[in-house]
Amino acid sequence: MSFATVIPKRPGEMMWFGLLCLGMMAGAVGVVQVLVHGHDHVYNVSREIPWGILISTYVFFVVSSTGLCLVSSLGDVWGFEKFAIIGRRGHLLALLTLCTGFGTMAMELNHPIRMGLYAVISPNFTSAIWWMGALYGFYMVCLIFEFTSLMRGWTRLAFWSGLAGFFAAITAHSNLGAVFGLLEARHFWYGSYMPIYFIVSALASGAALTVLIVYFNHKARGIEMPPVYQEFMYTMGKLQALFLGILLFFVVWKIIPGLYGQPPEKYETTMAWITGPLAFNFWFFELGLGILIPLIIVANRRTRTVFGVMIAGLLSTIGIFFMRYDLVIAGQMVSMRPEAVEGASHGLLHYFPSLTEIGIVIGSICLCLFLYSLAERVFDLEGGHRH
């Protein structure tokens, strides 16, 4: 493919790539601010709330990667013919979101290279975070092998690498849930609920992103969606209804234990989530945009059209981003030492991301979209096969 074919020529494409470049410039400015002034001066995280929006964005990206891998594997690994057409695109975006998540995490760390070095030469096998890095590293290798095999037509290698990637995605992502669920000091996170909840939310996120890349790929090229893709969108609408219904079930049962009996610390965190500083995020973004409105759209035959499924996917993606943010921040809002925390009101801490943090988040999202949009022009991502 020549360089000329990669350069966007239509006004809409030029505007899209231009907006993405502006977003990446905002991210680059944020990175420079971090390198020049240091984390302590440009991030709004603190000793009491050490995990901010960059951690929640990392979780959002890896949740999306896992979901994309699981949905795409339905065709390439498990032989469901309808899903074979999404194999290349789904696994490519899964790889890009995973790498972007790693980059976002690196910007949160003071010494990411040192961390990687000591994770190899001095591993802590009892640490859930160490296992998170190891499992996601193996998962990334599986994605690389599977995408390469799909592009080359290496059927057997694509199957085995896809099978390994499928189970690696589940293992790595449930372990990420365990990173939160094993923290006994943080009552809002603690418990066996988290690993399962992370898998369910990954499926919802993966289904939402899958319909978005199918819809906007045809829209951007100005071509009518073939019947096979239209049928795929209807099927994905049904899957979205299933995943969102299960996710709603999990959200309800996340709230009830936090309220019943008013357990110390967990009750205060739950109230901060549903009636306190995070209430708007929860009711409008998480529950409204993220679950209820998309569920109504895809559960109704009249609105479960190609366009309706796309809208549901878009709203779910926005809502799940805030879902990840609220989960990370809410779990830290109740101080473990309220009497020693300056500025805490009744033990409730406050956090709002700085402009630098927001810029890096915008830049990471735009970078991921830019790389995927470029890949659509470079690679032949059509087609699929069944094993």
From TrEMBL:
Keyword set, alphabetical order: Cell membrane, Membrane, Transmembrane, Transmembrane helix
Membrane topology: Multi-pass membrane protein
InterPro entries tied to this protein: Electron_transfer_protein, NrfD-like
Major place of residence: membrane
Recorded GO CC terms: plasma membrane
TM annotation in the entry: 16-37, 49-71, 92-109, 129-150, 157-176, 196-218, 239-260, 280-299, 306-328, 348-372
Subcellular location: Cell membrane
Keyword hit for Cell membrane: yes
Family according to the record: Belongs to the NrfD family.
Protein name in the entry: Polysulfide reductase
